[in-house]
Amino acid sequence: MDAIDIDAVLAAAVQKNLSAITEADAKKIFRAAGMPVVTEVQVETGDDAGREARNMGFPVVLKGCGKTLLHKTETSMVHLGLNTEAQVQAAARKMAARAGSDLEGFLVQPMVRGRRELVAGMFRDPQFGPVIMFGLGGIFTEALADIVFKIAPLDEADMDDMLGSFAGAGLLKAFRGEAACDIQALKTVLKGLSNLSLTWPQIREIDINPLIIQPDGRPVAVDGLMILQAPQDLKMSRPPVDLKILGACFYPESIAFVGASASIGKWGHMLPSNTLSRDYKGSIYLVNPKGEPIMGRPVFRSVSDIPGKVDLAVVTVPARHVKGLIAELAAKNVKGMLLVTSGFREVGDQGAALEQELVDAASKAGILVLGPNTMGMCNPHAQLYCSAAHAYPVPGSTALVSQSGNMGTQLLAFAEQQDIGIRAFSGSGNEAMVTIEDYMEAFEIDALTRTVVLYIESVKDGRRFFNSARRVSCKKPVVVLKGGRTARGKQAAASHTGAMASDAKVFDAACRQAGIIQVDQPMELLDLSAVFSSLPLPRGNRVAIMTLGGGWGVIATDLCTEHGLVVPPLSDDIVDRLNRVLPDFWSHGNPVDLVGEGDPDIPKTCLEELLKWDGCDAVIHLGIHGKRVLVNNMAESVSRTDPSVTQAQVAAFKQAVLEIEDDYTRYVVQMTHTYSKPVLGVSLLTDTVSKTLYRYDDLGYKGVFFASPERAVKALAGMHQYRQWLRNHGDKYPG
């Protein structure tokens, strides 16, 4: 890249106090950055334009130039397909009459032929910094919105993903007699935009539209716009915290509940009672100025009166009193504060000022504040349950952080119900000191965490979030549900690139690029945590489906196709093997319909045959597990209507069915180990004892069963998406 030329052009624009540079100068910069740019001549008069057009050869394009003439098509400053010198001069006169003193000259270009028009550009997002845009161009850019975004800098995998993931990607192949697009040339455009954005912060936006693909496949930029700004640096909302202190907050040896209350239902009663109700081994102290016993326990009038050390203070006193605790906590050498109290930034400017005063005081005292306005935290591995939710999930490997306390506590309750293990949970609250990025980085280095699950409503430091997530994703999956996804009201943008940007689109792009698996529903957060913690990753996207009924197989196949999974036809060898165990009228294809066969060994045999097949990477089985519920209901009907059947016989029958189902569930997990392929089940019916996970002490993997085909397919699709990201970004995952 010719840095001297670019510096000179930008310096001249700054000297003239311009908010944008001319199209001609923009293309000089594109050319210096290695991008393919149309040949053109800049002239001052219509007569000069006619003469240059004759020398260039017809047909030509004539454009009016000027510092304020940014959108030429909309202002009739572009005339295409001019075939004579007279036509060029006449077009120049029309432009001069229309633009008046804003017209500073003309650009003459050869008429570039090509049926395919693309757009490429760059803009600076206030959270994530420079963002590169690519997609379908021309006059339909904003109407069709077929575009993709990536955060700069771009690597080879990022560019491959951009070129392959917009809906019009098929246009890059051979098209209606025109050659396939020169992909490497397109990458020079994307890389050039990335390099420009990183090297020259005074460039706010770049718009290349259209980027025409010529009949021989070569792309060429025929129009360009560059908007300038005063260089700005992205600022961190909060500096990173000490991760050792943050980790220690989840393993306190002693807790002081400051603001303890005898009133049932108040935070000061709910949190200590929840914590005391479990098998937490640390010391617990209750603090209330009255000093009267609460829950039959002694109460200290202040933290200073506590005889032993205090590792964590759980604070529920009113907001106006919290800052006054800092000196006392510091004197006691307390390092962590779980601040449940609300009434800070979430209530307005006055609360925000109070929150900042607290942060300043706590930082100076060396105290780490979690919250405020949080629903609490838990660490099942330490039997520490200090949250509003009286839910007690088993110890596991899923770290859960939620910016919505209610959402987080509901997920904890569901995790307990479905036997999904939790590594730790925190409601991040206002994130006055500890941000979502801090939690991610803490769980990145935590050996017990295998999956990081986040509910996010806002990101305060987009660039750090992106960098942290991309780094964490190389080691363990990050699953995100984003609340508040509606786009912000757009500010007036000077380019197509800026106009196409929105908070949601940029956030989605950052997640995809960083390897984050995004979901649409709360339940999917734990569905993905279940499969990531229980099953091997699939090696590809080919799925074998086994079902007890044809309808579910059809539904599952459609769902797979809609979510980027492939249901391949069975090989002749697999068909021959299945013919040995299934009746003649079975489906003879994928999905494999077991046609309601009652022999419990048939599903096991068919499952293993499918797992042996090198044409599939995962198996989804539907309707085999959960028959117990239906059979139990049948047994109850029989016991009510047939007096010859005893209750003992009914109980024995139910027990036999339960043992058959347990045997099948265990067999599924054994086969998962044997063939190192994920196996996901869909239960025929569920009841109060049905679970998502079934664990066996002697087996590392677990049985995974969902209540619907959609949940199973979406979970498998998320696993495949993550495996693809790992493969494309050079991870060290085996296989």
Can you put this structure into words, describing what you see?
With about 725 residues, this protein is of the alpha/beta class. It has 5 domains: about 5-110, ATP-grasp fold, A domain (Dna Ligase, domain 1, 2-Layer Sandwich); about 115-230, D-amino Acid Aminotransferase, Chain A, domain 1, CATH 3.30.470.20; about 250-375, NAD(P)-binding Rossmann-like Domain (Rossmann fold, 3-Layer(aba) Sandwich), CATH 3.40.50.720; about 375-460, 3-Layer(aba) Sandwich (Rossmann fold); about 535-730, 3-Layer(aba) Sandwich (Rossmann fold). It is built from 24 helices and 30 strands. The strands form 5 sheets. Strands 1, 6, 7, 8, 9, 10 and 11 form a 7-stranded antiparallel sheet that branches. It has a 7-stranded mixed sheet with strand order 19-18-21-20-22-23-24, with helices on both faces. A 6-stranded parallel sheet has the order 14-13-12-15-16-17, sandwiched between helices. It is flat, with a radius of gyration of 32 Å. The model is unreliable at about 485-500 (pLDDT under 50).
Give the tags.
735 residues; alpha/beta; Dna Ligase, domain 1; D-amino Acid Aminotransferase, Chain A, domain 1; Rossmann fold; 5 domains; seven-stranded antiparallel sheet; seven-stranded mixed sheet; 24 helices; 30 strands; 39% helix; 20% strand; flat
